Amino acid sequence: xxxxxxxxxxxEEMSEAVRNGPVRIKELKEAGVPVVGTYCTFTPWxxxxxxxxxxxxxxxxxxxxISAAEKHLPRNLCPLIKSSYGFALTDTCxxxxxxxxxxGETTCDGKKKMYELLNELRPTHVMQLPQDxxxxxxxxxxxxxxxxxxxxxxxxxxxxITDEKLRKSIELRxxxxxxxxxxxxxxxxxxxxxxxxxxxxxxxxxxxxxxxxKSVAKxxxxxxxxxxxxxxxxxxxDISSHRxxxxxxPMGKSLEKVVDAIENSESPSxxxxxxxxxxxxxxxxxxxEDIDPIDALTEKYLSIPCSVMSPNDERIxxxxxxxxxxxxxxVVDVIxxxxxxxxxxxxxIRRFLAEEGVPYIAVETDYSQGDVGQLATxxxxxxxxx
Amino acid sequence: xxxxxxxxxxxEEMSEAVRNGPVRIKELKEAGVPVVGTYCTFTPWxxxxxxxxxxxxxxxxxxxxISAAEKHLPRNLCPLIKSSYGFALTDTCxxxxxxxxxxGETTCDGKKKMYELLNELRPTHVMQLPQDxxxxxxxxxxxxxxxxxxxxxxxxxxxxITDEKLRKSIELRxxxxxxxxxxxxxxxxxxxxxxxxxxxxxxxxxxxxxxxxKSVAKxxxxxxxxxxxxxxxxxxxDISSHRxxxxxxPMGKSLEKVVDAIENSESPSxxxxxxxxxxxxxxxxxxxEDIDPIDALTEKYLSIPCSVMSPNDERIxxxxxxxxxxxxxxVVDVIxxxxxxxxxxxxxIRRFLAEEGVPYIAVETDYSQGDVGQLATxxxxxxxxx
Lengths: 386, 386
Fold this sequence. Notes:
The structure is a homodimer.
Chain A: H1 3-19, H2 21-30, E1 35-38, H3 45-50, E2 54-57, H4 66-69, H5 79-90, H6 94-98, E3 101-105, H7 109-118, E4 124-127, H8 138-157, H9 163-184, H10 196-208, H11 212-231, E5 242-248, H12 256-263, E6 269-275, H13 280-283, H14 293-302, H15 313-325, E7 330-336, H16 340-356, E8 360-365, H17 372-384
Parallel strand pairs in A: 1-2, 1-3, 3-4, 5-6, 5-7, 7-8
Helix pairs in contact in A: 1-10, 1-11, 5-7, 8-14, 9-10, 9-11, 12-17
């Protein structure tokens, strides 16, 4: 098997594993494993793992259940929120179906208010997320919320989360983080080896497979194959491509249309990285292993530069860092319709990138396929100018 | 002068005083009085008064500056936020023009993020507002923010806010609160004496006049005239009117169209009260005078049942109370476009009122006059069914 064939094979295997996620969750549930539903990168994964449970990302990226959700929620609301609620309402998300409890956070207005309704469908514990990570009381509040979640999980599942368990979970999560970043950072190779949807697939693989050590090994195997292919002078993608860094709202299945529109531009273009939660934004920082585990979780999760934070300068730092590191030629800001925080923040990102001389485009989109043609036109024009 | 003529005359006088607000602010500014801009009912008015300043409600209710704002802000954002920012950007709000500092709060996503940009135009101090008033840390956080604001104002204006000053300001504000509620509560008379726009005018009068004792006296004079007219068997409004309680987003000048649409229905209808901030929601509770003033402010301002709070059960209690008290036949929920919190919460309000058997309609609108015909049609159909 050639290096390239090996990469292809591993990616295919990952894709199969992601498709198999619902079956695996059913098995875990039947085996008595606590299933904890999450929507956001802010949920401390390690606490769920330390209670012996699996944290599952609840379905939120398809437009199918949106019309059902709109019976209770306004139309003019972020599709991710409507999709999340719609899946729950119609019981069409296997992960929601099997989850014992949902953990939410007071991130954005829409999610915060949607959780009130979701709580009628499944017990929903909402963590109070501070809005300014640098405020003098934010750390105390967030630490309080992390300790509170620990108690909620312990009581719900009748399991004590000892420091030892928590430290082990932190180590495990850090190994996933390291594997994810090692993979994302293959974008530092002079020759592009994977495309945008493949990056999304690997992120999904780490989300929707639950034998974590195996998953970490698989991602590392993929990275090894990529490095070997590169060492052998091979190339899987067009080396002349414009290199695009994506930022903005969470990218799910329905937003592959954006990646397609970019990568199918006449002027060859490739998505080389995602500064989004679930990707670099969520994974770029390890949880410290040299301090009290609760303090370490507090620090890590409070540092995620989501646009709900105000001010959110760290996002600009992160974009700066990864534009440089991944040699991005341009930044594409993907904003879900009616996501006020990312939408307002795009003005700051635009100004910052203009100062840096990095081309930037913001697109507002939803989960429908209605704007596929428009996206193609816009990205066609944008990449042609690069 | 008849009782009715007296009421008319006082209302005309109030209208004139509101129009004169900008001139008065200019005079105050020139006299060296600190001018503090606010956008929200959550700003502790008493602290501004205690520092010797005037708290001015910054312009936010006209669609004129919205197109200018949309150069920096997304189109799909609440008109109140775009209007606020647009007025500041185009320097067309006299209150903004003369204000030394703006006080904002992390209420909704749009405002929170807009304040980041506003801070480039005028120093903007943002208070971290807790999202759940009943959460065990909310009081501590909000008290911290109130003490912090006190320091910010003291430092900015070089004036110490003593407990004595603060207690006096609380007394003054409570006298305004009492006058406002005494006026609103004339809706408990069996005969309606004022209409919706007149209620809005009195609220504006208390906002945009700055000789507070005089304003309180004037409002009380109006109430006396109303009570006298009632005692004399007089009636200023159609007694057969359907009585409407308005709830929802802040009501400003541009939303008089909603009141007009209701009150011009073929089936006679009258707005008898506003469960909105700047009206009942902001004024229904006094600040306690029998405890530490900072604690009293903390308690009062944290209890405002804005939809940004989650859960926000107190709003339902307030609506229940005032539907009963003002004998409302129906509730109209006025939601500004893209205001996610009020928009999502309307589902709860609708269910609650359905249980209570109170007719309810929610309208989503903006500051344009484009939907005036549509509003007339909808309210025509709605009031006909009452």
